[in-house]
Predict the structure.
Amino acid sequence: MGRLLFIAPLVVFLLLGAYFAIGLTRDPSHIPSALIDKPLPAFDLPAIEGYDRGLSSNDLGGKIALINFFGSWCVSCVIEHPVLMEIAAKEDVLLVGIDWKDKPGDGARWLERRGDPYALIGDDADGRTALDFGITGAPETFIIDRNGRIRYRYQGPITEDVWRDIINPLLGQLKRDGGGDA
């Protein structure tokens, strides 16, 4: 009985140690999305102030697309923006934006100062569409295939390294596979 009292805490300690050691190998900034390989949530967003056209899920039908959630209040979005401008100028992919929880006019003024990389922009002032996507913060970007399925979610600013090493190869694979489910 005395030996069991000594071994039990040791076993518990070793199990907890293994659990935490495994946890340390995971990237805490990567929160998996329950929407991967699921259909794009349906949405129909109005245009941001000063723009004529908004954005709906129907606008993406049959196209490989990047959906980028941004906000004029988002510091990391400033870091990401030059890369998005370069993607829009040089790459063959539909890039659309969702202005998340901005005050009227703030998103349009922000884009006017920095440039507008988006083919279409929707205004998600109340954040309902972001909730449907499971957004945890801005910026966040989703890759959508031609069948309207979410194939990837990137949380954080898209840097040149992220574009080169993660997102562009995924887009290339989708294009080679016909843009939908392989």
The CA atoms of residues 143 and 171 lie 8 Å apart. Confidence is low (pLDDT under 50) at residues 26-31. The domain at 30-176 is CATH 3.40.30.10 (Glutaredoxin). The radius of gyration is 21 Å.
